[in-house]
Design a protein that fits this description.
Length: 105
Amino acid sequence: MDTITREAGGECARVIGILRGKKAYLEETYHVGSIGIFGSCRRGEEHEGSDVDILVEFSEVPGIFGFLRLERYLSELLGKKVDLVEKSALKPRIGRRILNEVIYV
C-alpha cells in the first residue's frame, strides 16, 4: 500500500484501489485524463449512505450523455452513489478547497 492510499484510510483506500485498477479502461473508454476523490470520503468523514465525490478532467470533452454514462458506471463499479464533478466546472472559491484536498489516482 502506498503513502497516498495509507493516508486516505478505509473506504477512501478501497475507492482509490478500484479506480487505479480501472484507470486504463477509464482513459480508453471515457477519455478520462485525470480522476481523483475529494469530500467526506477523502477526509475520512463518510458514513453509511455517503456518496463518493469524484473530480474528473477529460482528454476529450464528452457530451452530457457521455458524462452521465461515466457517472453511472462509477456508481455501479464502486457500489455507491457518485457525485461526479468536472474540474473545468469548478467555481473559484469552492474549487480551491477541492483542489487542495483531492487525491488523484
